[in-house]
Please model this.
Amino acid sequence: MVERADSGAVASEASAPGVGKRRGWVVAGSAVVVGVVLGFHRHVPNWPGRVGSLLESFLPWVGLLVVVLLVVALVRRSAVALVALLLPVGVWVDTFGGLLLPGGESGGGRELVVVQHNVSDENRDPGGTARALIGSRADLVALEELVDPQVAVYEKSLAADYPHHVVRGTVGLWSKHPLSGEQVVDIKPPSIEEGWSRGLRAVVHSPYGDVAAYVAHLPSVRVGAGGLASQRRDESAALLGRAIADESVEAVVLLGDLNGVVEDRGLKPLTSQLGVAGSGFAFSFPARFPVARIDQVMARSATVGRIRTLPATGSDHLPVVARVTLA
Model:
């Protein structure tokens, strides 16, 4: 009996390295799959349920999966897994590493400081929100979800610091510099009823030249059992993209709650012609535990520097602020 037990233990010990080796190859294979998905996310089909857009909405967080695989590889002491992990690590760093760099806080003389904030139609402290935004000392402040009676509070609170402003529908722009050419931008998807107005355009006469400023609030998206419901958002993005493509003023700044991250293919009508922030993740939603930046600053014939969030206000979004350097 003792001899049989000893021989069983020896057999068990002999098989353990093989098991560990197989597990190492499983981790290595998983690492390669993660790396391929990161590098070729644009090729992930957007059906069913717009799975491609859903993946892209949380793409930076795939890095956490890489960390988990790294821990497993270290525990297993698998050299092949550690080598394979170089692929997803390299792809993640190439894709998002630049956002971790500090970036310049000043681009010289030809720059505008801009703030974008969805202030929430349920905000119970619009006055406090306005004071917080004034503290940013921005040149331009773009707001969404402006509803009565809060809009009057913003107009009164911001008037001294921002003598020029325009409100169209539920979006508004406040500026330290004169405005002209204020108009509604129709970004209403066909399936939405009349009375929906979430886009505006105005020309900012800055000390460095004219800038066409667009403020937009694209339709919300929902994640459910059927995947990502983003058709209306995508249609609205396409309409906004056409308006910007037809813009006669060379320098353009887009400020808005776009209900999508810049990696999301649904925003391609915008990201294909506008530059995005060079550094900073600035996750802005939800305010209590931000997991994505859906509040965006984009520009044409200008460079968007580091983007960052401001402290929470009475909204379910965090404000984002960036410096835009004109070409």
